[in-house]
Records
---
Amino acid sequence: LPLHIHTSLPVRVKPGNENIKLSHGNYYQSSLTDTGLRSVYCRSRAVVVPLQNVLQPSGYSVTMQAMACGKPVVLTRNRGLWAPEYLVDGENCILVSPGNSAALATALRRLEGDAGLRTRMGEAARETVLKHFPHKKNLESLRAAIADL
């Protein structure tokens, strides 16, 4: 499968894997602009968000951006999963266990082989973002936090 990896971690691609593209960056500093990153999401068939099994919520920004672009997301179901009530496995995302590369491969093959599933899951993902995570709601939460200070 064609694969674009965007990470600040050291990744080595074996010679002959022309299907793999690397770009460097993280939430704070990136070789991609916001517009460039959105373009990557929009051109993707699916977005994978592999996370460590930690209690701290992580992967929120990437997941929400990809879902807002109408893309199915394969996300690690870690201990710090930040919105388990809205991230529904098989409906608006696919959740895999931490470190389970076989489950990740199965999820990617399933999405690659079923365009209808990708479309349905992507539409459900976008609807989840619009319904439960709109900018207005985030702005209200920010204002309330500032007022509390």
---
Amino acid sequence: MSVNPEAIRAFEHAGWQRAAAAYEDTFARATTPFASALLDAAGVAPGTRLLDVACGLAHTGGAAATCGATVHGLDFSAAMARIARARHPEITVNEGDAEALPYPDGMFDAVVSNFGIHHVPRPEIALAEARRVLATKGRIAFTVWAAPNENVAWALVFDAVARYGDRSVSDAPPPGGSFDRPEDCLSALKGAGFTQVSARIVRAEWPLANAQALIAALLSGTVRMAALIAAQDPSALPAIIAEIERHAERYRRGNQIALPIAAVLAQGTAPRKDDAAK
């Protein structure tokens, strides 16, 4: 399957520019539960010089700053960066490209990305750039969504669309790489020159009122899932939502459903520069 980096970049950029305003009240509720484990994996502590790549609204960077880290955030969406600066004035937020980081070699002790790497057109270049800006023995950690067989919220949507809609009609270009399994992430980290790499599944829950709220959150707060849902025939949506609702009932707690969600948490260490050159 051919990959067109510029098509991916244009698609993702337009989508995140659109989603920025709604993200806080929609999809952020799914991504923020993983921030603490991500920062722990990167060894973030008071005094850590941290770069948060694809920082979005800087929830992860804000948590790190609260812990005493010195934080820079980077996002290619001007809309996201603008909101992040307003919400987190304690962080230096730049608009920029993960594949061409605007920082000197060895500037950071840690680099993190909470659900950002799989949106980059060429993740291998972004990871190599992360290694470049890390000091020797600096640590990288990132999260990506786990495969649907590990991820109930995603499986509910994909299964309902497959039954009552059409999964092939989305106009999203193919992503720059597959990152939904631990082995995918390990291979990418090793390919970028990281050592002491590891990857594991981490789990959380996403509380929502009902299936309609899930679809609304995905439509307004994501890019690829939004494209899939928006491409469905409007006449099929009631059946899709009803199918999700039926299967989501097993996760109901009072007036909410608590959908299990899962991510791959990957980490690695930057070698000495002369070791990386060997």
---
Amino acid sequence: SGLAVAVVAATLWSVPAASSARAAISDTPRGTDASAVGKVIVIMEENDSQAETFSQMPYLASLGATYGKATNYKSVGHPSLPNYLAVFGGSTYGVPGYCPVGCGPTAATSRTVWDETLDAGKTAKAYEESMPKNCTTTQGSTAYVPRHGPWPYWTNGVSRANCLANDVPLTALQGDITTGNLPVTGLITPNLNDDGDKGTDAQADAFLQNWIPKLQAGSDYASGNLTIVITTDEDDFSAGNNVAFVVVNQALSGKVVTGAFNHYSLSRWLSDNAGVAPLNNAAASPGLRSAFGL
């Protein structure tokens, strides 16, 4: 079991001295809401309902209670892959499930919110635990799977070039935290052991307990320039795909959003934040960012 997560958490780590003022200016979204937070990181995990997540992952539950959560948030289908495509492409593209990279209509002309962010002159990056090299398209012998870090599934020339440059092993994350260079549109993907797919919910919670304090120790978060969102890719067929959605941001304190939202709403949040047009089904989805007042 597991969950798809985007989060930021409190820490006792010392904040790096490097200033983030320049990054806060250059990465400010060019969309309709100039007050939006400049950077959003999504942490994707696996396969639990909201109720299971909050009962079995106490650290994540505490983040939701402390900062913010949406209680009527749903994934858009089963199994994993279509949900990841929905978040970063605004569509499932008719992809049926665990098909390999290159399957379905994502390859030829469609684009990702990462690509749109880069086209707008902003930064986009995905950090993949256990991925052996940039934009790896097959599982191989590690606990990495591209279907949980889906940038490789867009195989047109522009998307593949962007993927090769910006879909990187998780080992690059700490350096970007320290230097204040986290992306405007970002993803952190735990491996199969740490996302709740093959491992336990306790392992998934421990992954967050390791990385969230490090994220908050960085200048991006300390300057109020970073939001991290946490949601599950899908449930385990037990709760109509009602999954956890946690938002950690300095401006939030116990915020509870009760409106109906789904992964297309998260896709729209990423696009709105980057100041680019929402993709596909995200364009008609309700504004989740504004529901949190961010």
